[in-house]
Specification:
Order of helices and strands: HHEEEEEEEEHHHEEHHEEH
Radius of gyration: 19 Å
Oligomer: single chain
Number of strands: 12
Mean pLDDT: 85
Largest sheet: 4 strands, antiparallel
Number of helices: 8
Distance between the termini: 56 Å
Length: 228
């Protein structure tokens, strides 16, 4: 049990909690497992829980009237979703799907609200961390709106390397299976534009696409890359 509760301490939202507070949160946690390409929840459905990734990968996306996906985010171990968190009464804002076999910690929203009312110290600490998350999302939005499509694509690859990459002999392996269409949906462009970008980076020996993700052969060159 002690080892399982330590999982909560690895989640940024609960990093400042005392041992007693962690124990109280753990008492309402539900563990769940999902197979690859399984939906955790769908856009517009009633929000019943907030999830934390124990291990695995999740993508969240919206679907337009034509059935096209618009990817909102890729999430890794320790991340919370949905970002609207515990305090919004609105339905789930997007669909969440497991990209690979994934294990989650689920916290029912009603049970968590009751716990925070009973223990204000937990509420204060959680809100401090959420405030930082809001600032991070605002910075991301400002960054994206100030870039053209090619620059957004390169910035996205850089973030993948920083958050999901593992380095071996100077090569960064990003294990995140993603189609060029999913890449395009994430940065708000077309698959053809992403095809051209990836092909150019491959020709220059900077990035090598693979079924399992990407190999980044020269991270410094990627960070310095500008399109002609």
């Amino acid at each position: 049990m002690q080892q399982q509760m330590e999982l909560l301490r690895q989640i940024p939202l609960f990093r400042d909690l005392t041992q007693e507070e962690v124990t109280r949160v753990w008492s309402i946690v539900i563990t769940r497992s999902y197979r690859k390409r399984t939906a955790i929840f769908t856009e517009g459905s009633k929000k019943e829980a907030v999830f934390f990734i124990r291990n695995g990968l999740i993508k969240t996306y919206k679907t337009d009237e034509n059935g096209h996906e618009h990817i909102m985010s890729f999430l890794k171990t320790g991340d919370m979703f949905p970002h609207t968190g515990f305090f919004s009464k609105h339905p789930y804002p997007a669909t969440a799907e497991a990209i690979m076999e994934t294990k989650l910690l689920a916290i029912p929203t009603q049970a968590f609200e009751l716990l925070m009312m009973e223990t204000p110290a937990i509420a204060i600490k959680v809100m401090r961390v959420l405030s930082g998350k809001i600032m991070e999302l605002q910075e991301k939005l400002q960054e994206l709106t100030g870039q053209d499509v090619q620059d957004r694509g390169v910035s996205f690859l850089i973030k993948l390397a920083e958050h999901y990459g593992t380095e071996h002999s100077g090569v960064i392996h990003v294990e995140l299976p993603m189609t060029n269409q999913e890449f395009a949906n994430t940065i708000g462009t077309t698959r053809e534009t992403v095809n051209r970008l990836i092909n150019q980076l491959r020709k220059e020996g900077i990035v090598e696409p693979q079924r399992s993700g990407y190999l980044i052969h020269n991270f410094n060159a990627l960070k310095a890359w500008t399109h002609k």
